[in-house]
Amino acid sequence: MMKLQNQFNGVEGLDQSRREIMVGPRSNGIRPRHAFAAVNGRRESFPLSAPPSAPTSNAGSDVAGLDFTREDVEALLNERMKTKNKFNYKERCEQMMDYIRRLRLCIRWFQEVEGGYLLEQENLRELLESAEKKCTEMGNNELSRSVIHRILRLSKCLITESERISAILEVLMQNKEEDLNAIIMELRKNYNLLQEKCAKEESDKLAVMDDLSREKEARIAAEKLQASLSVDLEKANQEQQSSTQKISSLNDMYKRLQEYNTSLQQYNTKLQTELSMTNETLKCVESEKAAIVENLSTLRGQFSSLQDHLTSFRVGSYASQEEAANQKEALVSEVGCLRMELQQARDERDRQLSQVLSLTEEVAKYKDFTGKSASELDCLTVKSNELEAKCSSRNEIVRTLQDQLAAAQKKLQMPALWLLLAFQMSDLSAIETRKQFEEQNLIICDLRNRLEDAELKLVEGEKLRKKLHNTILVVVSHRSLSPFDFQELKGNIRVFCRVRPLLSDESSNADTKVINFPTSTEAMGRGIDLLQNGQKHCFTFDKVFMPDASQEDVFVEISQLVQSALDGYKVCIFAYGQTGSGKTFTMMGRPGNANKKGLIPRSLEQIFETRQSLQSQGWKYELQVSMLEIYNETIRDLLATNKSYAMENGTSGKQYMIKHDANGNTHVSDLTIVDVRSTREVSYLLDKAAQSRSVGKTLMNEQSSRSHFVFTLRISGVNESTEQQVQGVLNLIDLAGSERLSKSGSTGDRLKETQAINKSLSSLSDVIFALAKREDHVPFRNSKLTYLLQPCLGGDSKTLMFVNISPDPSSLPESLCSLRFAARVNACEIGVPRRQTNARLSESR
Ligand SMILES: Nc1ncnc2c1ncn2[C@@H]1O[C@H](COP(=O)(O)OP(=O)(O)OP(=O)(O)O)[C@@H](O)[C@H]1O
């Protein structure tokens, strides 16, 4: 209590003279150690007493002014409990103790309240009132009352002190408030400044954040890019490695192929020489054969004449033969008679001889009997002489008879001999003829064998040629070979470029040379350079024909491709180019001039010729022709007999539908298909079609084709000996020319045609672009032309495009467009050409 009073006494002294009391700086809830006061205009500081230490277990001893302790109260209580109601006193004492504890706490709180300046007077008053109440409740107990009084006193004292302090505090608070207000103002200012700064910083921060996020994004993107680039780089490295390997392997292959090519070329030359030798032998054999056949026929004539002669002789000699036979029979019977007579004479002679003998024996006997009389002997000798005479006469008769017989026999033998001789003669000549005939037959057989051998060789040579042409040579990358040799392997569309000569009416403005043909070994015959505004545009194709190239020169380059159609390939050749650039000239040629015949008639001539020569190898071909034009997006049958399509408004009466079958063959419904057997028939059909074609005059071309012309030749061949079948198709197409309306000066119907032509050609370029980019969808159906050409552009055909170019400088932009388009076409990869061939089915045999 004393400590407290001292503390406040100091303050009380201050109270009288102060004008302004301030509290020392307080921050972070730390209690201030000084109070400041302005004393007589001077700022002084007064130390505030330290706060009481933390309450000890003996709480009562900390309370200043309360000079009794808990022990006192307990002792008092114990004493009183001896006499009074134990329970009531104890309870009340405890209540009192509780009250005192709360009072102590109040004092401590008062001391410890921040700076000791806030005093809850209301609470103290409440406490006081409750203490008074409790005092009343406690009644007349002396001890309690004195305790209570003390407490009350203490309380009152506390109240007054607190009131005083609160007054001081109020002042202090006011001052402090002002200070604080000033500080707050300052702080607000600072705050505002800070806020502005903060806002600025915030905006800066946002900008920086934006920058940062952008940078982050950029960094992430860069990292991603870096990652993808590194992946790409890795891939590229791998690709590079693999391509290096590929290149080296390709180089190896190239070398090997070159070697192979050389060997093949040698082989080819050998084969060619063999072929020519075989051909020569064949020619010799054929001439020999002809001679033999001639010989044979003369021999046959001889033989037949001999046979005729023999039969006539036989017929002629028949009568004399009969007569001779009769004579012979008569003679034979005569001979028989003579023989009988002779026999009889012989018998007689023998008998007489035996008589002579017996007589001779008898004579000998008589001679033995010497004793016989001479007369008897004489008589016997006479007898013997008679008999001998008889015998000799008989011998004479036998001799004459024998002579007669010999004569008769001679007579008999004469015609027989003659006949026999004749027979023998004719037999001899027949045998000789037969011999000759057999010899000739042998020679013929031999010749036939040789002929067969030669033909076999020829077939094998042809087979080899085909094989070399269609299989082996395709892998040989040698420019001296035909570009079609590569087609089977690469599957690209080949492109030939043809520059026509300047026409007479063009030569006036042809001083400037805009087209060049490079002469370097690389590009010789394959390159073409265009000069536009001083800029050079270089192009390379499979072949470039200069203006002086003849129709024959051009055909030579495609003849092998045409040959492929006979070998069972689908072949498509089409001419593309600006109007008047020479497409129709290339495809059809100039009518009535044999030297200027175009590719279509030349191809057909070759096909018919080859068909003829292949017949000897067992090949039989059937050829069918159809011709159509696509005019204003409508199909017209150029071989239709009734001409129902030719309607006034240019629209077709019939609706022709294009269909492709599973084999990639194209069919146009209701189209006239004509069987052809000779070039003359085809020429007739071509003339007929040319008359039906839509042709018109434009500023660019006197005879401008206003439609796309499609000539189709279907070839089906059967080989009887090898049982092979082939189905080839040859499509030859003369496209309508692309043109600029401003240049062509088209109006009316021409304008409509031009628009249709340009639209279908742009569809063609769309298709080519889609193919070049290997897009999933190729818009073949966008025009009739592209749909018709679908198997040629996207299938397994051997396709060749002619890009025709005009050398006229005024056509330079169009030429450049055409060449760019052609370069695209050249890069297009379509399917690998497939040969349509199969073994013949037994049913079809
Ligand atoms: N190589 C050539 N040699 C000689 N004359 C040629 C040659 N090429 C074209 N011509 C001539 O040029 C003219 C135009 O040729 P052509 O009619 O063939 O052109 P086009 O491209 O078919 O034209 P369009 O698309 O208008 O039908 C014709 O008179 C033709 O005879």
UniProtKB/TrEMBL annotation:
Pfam families: Kinesin (PF00225). Residues 492-828 form the Kinesin motor domain. SMART domains: KISc. CDD domains: KISc_C_terminal. Residues 44-63 are annotated as: Disordered. ATP binds at residues 577-584. One of its GO terms (cellular component) is microtubule. One of its GO terms (molecular function) is microtubule motor activity. GO terms for biological process: microtubule-based movement. Keywords: ATP-binding, Coiled coil, Microtubule, Motor protein, Nucleotide-binding. Residues 177-204, 233-270, 328-362 form a coiled coil. Belongs to the TRAFAC class myosin-kinesin ATPase superfamily. Kinesin family. KIN-14 subfamily. This is Kinesin-like protein.
